[in-house]
Amino acid sequence: MKTVINLPEIRAARAELTGPIGFVPTMGYLHAGHLALVRRARDECASVVVSIFVNPTQFGPQEDLASYPRDLPHDLSQLREAGVDLVWTPTPELMYPPGFQTWVSVEKVAQGLEGAARPGHFRGVATVVAKLFNAVQPHKAYFGQKDAQQAAVIQRLTKDLDLPIQIVVCPTLREPDGLAMSSRNSYLTPAERQAATVLFRALSAARIAFGQGERRAETLRQVVRTVIGAEPLANLQYVACSNAETLEELELVHDKALLSLAVHLGKTRLIDNILLE
Amino acid sequence: MKTVINLPEIRAARAELTGPIGFVPTMGYLHAGHLALVRRARDECASVVVSIFVNPTQFGPQEDLASYPRDLPHDLSQLREAGVDLVWTPTPELMYPPGFQTWVSVEKVAQGLEGAARPGHFRGVATVVAKLFNAVQPHKAYFGQKDAQQAAVIQRLTKDLDLPIQIVVCPTLREPDGLAMSSRNSYLTPAERQAATVLFRALSAARIAFGQGERRAETLRQVVRTVIGAEPLANLQYVACSNAETLEELELVHDKALLSLAVHLGKTRLIDNILLE
Questions:
Q1: A123 touches chain B (CB under 8 A)
Q2: What residues in A contact B157, CB-CB < 8 Å?
Q3: The complex's ipTM?
Q4: Residue in chain A lying closest to B95 (CA)
Q5: What's the predicted TM-score (pTM) here?
Q6: Nearest 5°: phi and psi at A5?
Q7: Which tens digit of pLDDT belongs to each residue from B153-177?
């Protein structure tokens, strides 16, 4: 496994790999969810490239950029174990040198939910993903369903900008008690960690209602609100029942919907979602 | 010479070309300036691709999109003559299908001059150039110095988004009387055509002042204003004396400056520029 830092290095190392090339962009502090993306890439592609970059432009000024968890040695040993060919660990100074001033913005699909709760977040995501894609030039890129809106934004920008890359969205990996795997779970106190199961319990309750025939989006959202409201440590920021591709809020669920939520547990903000279909 | 229209066609045709690939993006109605770009690409690259696309998103609502001159048969015969390998003529519907919502924006360098006079213009230019680059994936792309700010915007976005493409900016071609070649010259009445020589005469007068040692940017701009003011058919929209890379307005010209202007002649708007160095 080769590790590179700057742009000429990643280009040169990329040029030596056999195609097709699978790419897993990450912010590091890897968990089993990331490793499932790597395994899928390993299965489908001749070569696998992983980037580790905590992208400052997708964090708001009040967010957790400085405290975002990092453990590069452990990340690298997990990636080596997983059979990755090439790891790229650029620095913020290399990605955003003085004079940097070009942004990729996705409109409608990036405006609600996380986009509304975190202004500028998806402009940062879209810009860094475009840069990572242009440097790595993969055939396929792998993202987790846990960040459902991010996946929708990246699918949209890939199509709109005519990037010759196939976006593969992989199922959310969960802890045995249902909590979606996330690097931010490491922030939780033991009590918050226990309370955090409420996200998936709330989504699951709505899924049961959907399974029993409930199609009114507002009623499904209300099921989520009720379950979250019963957990004293949890504060619901939003719950949405939306079209899974456009992220437009629904009144009625016809065939398929994305049910998603953001919850504060103390200082930690967690998101989760399920597809109703 | 092969001609293609849709994205799968351009990708397939591109894949069959021998590299390095030179790319000349145009809006058609080709003149000697375009053909000089093609010739340069032909000299430097194994294969030459030209696109012809009158990009709607770079025209303002009051601008000349509908009347922009078009002559595809003549364009194609000129390109065939010039030894071009592949011509791509996409349609607006193919480039901007329903649901399109991703934009590439360059900030500071796109804000003054043409960016201030034509709101949204450079967002349209940056977005379409990113799309064209992603589809054609050239090694080198050729642009004319006549659109100096456009060249600076494209150089900036190519660098900022880590596109592996070398941008080559070629000198402005001029008519024997000094008028910069432009597809929009076809709009001019005979009287306006004669008056249009005032753009280059004004720039040349400032160049003489610069050659005589004048370094105050405002004095150089004033020379341009005076010459344009003496031509009754010409209305100066702006004159700028700016840093050639950042497009920031200068007070004093140290080593190098871009002197540029936009002028209305009747209903026609023309731009021109020279480098002072």
A1: no
A2: 102
A3: 0.95
A4: A160
A5: 0.96
A6: -120, -50
A7: 999 999 999 999 999 999 999 999 9
